[in-house]
Write a structure and sequence with these properties.
The chain has about 180 residues and is α+β, with helices and mostly antiparallel strands. It has six helices and four strands. The longest helix is centred in the C-terminal third of the chain and has 25 residues, at about 130-150. This is Polyhydroxyalkanoate synthesis repressor PhaR. It comes from Pseudomonas synxantha.
Length: about 180
């Protein structure tokens, strides 16, 4: 085998006894080990040992559940309820938004040169008021953009002022055609 273990996807098999087996290292793994693979950015795939079904998402959700159970959780009950409410017609919108938001935070982290999650955590706590305000502004702008787009297509029953494509701003009274 080559030393390019970071470039190849590691195959992890999940057995009926709920044990995870890393075929690359020939050893059993825990959810903490799976979390470390994610932190180390080592690509992997978890499959059912019997059926070959892809279980990666399910295992990642278990890692999140375990992380949420200990320490300070990321997700409040209200946030989790909001996520659950989005399943259905707006599911892809929320998924795309969360993907882009998390990628933005990862990009910021890499640009600041934070070498560890502890350094990042300290930075965020020191900058909490500033970062919270920036994130609030980002969320407000995203919400406004989303609602304006929905109104443009008439999804909420209202149309934006003026005719679509007839100018860049709202029409003043008496400007109608």
């Amino acid at each position: 085998m080559t030393d390019n273990s970071r470039n190849t996807t590691r195959l992890i098999k999940k057995y009926p006894n709920r044990r995870l087996y890393d075929t690359h290292t020939s050893s059993h793994l825990t959810l903490a080990d799976i979390r470390q693979l994610v932190v180390d950015k080592i690509p992997f795939e978890v499959v059912d040992a019997k059926t070959g079904e892809d279980l990666t998402r399910s295992i990642l959700l278990q890692v999140i559940l375990e992380a949420e159970s200990g320490g300070e959780p990321i997700f409040s009950s209200e946030m989790l309820m909001g996520i659950i409410q989005f399943y259905g017609p707006y599911q892809s919108v929320l998924g795309s938004y969360l993907d882009k938001s998390i990628q933005t935070v990862i990009d910021i982290q890499s640009q600041t040169g934070a070498q560890s999650s502890e350094a990042w955590s300290k930075f965020m706590h020191q900058q909490a008021p500033v970062m919270q305000d920036l994130m609030r502004q980002y969320v407000d702008q995203s919400k406004d953009l989303y609602l304006n787009t929905q109104n443009l297509f008439g999804l909420f029953g209202g149309m934006p002022p003026g005719k679509p494509g007839a100018g860049s701003g709202p029409k003043k009274n008496g400007d109608g055609e």
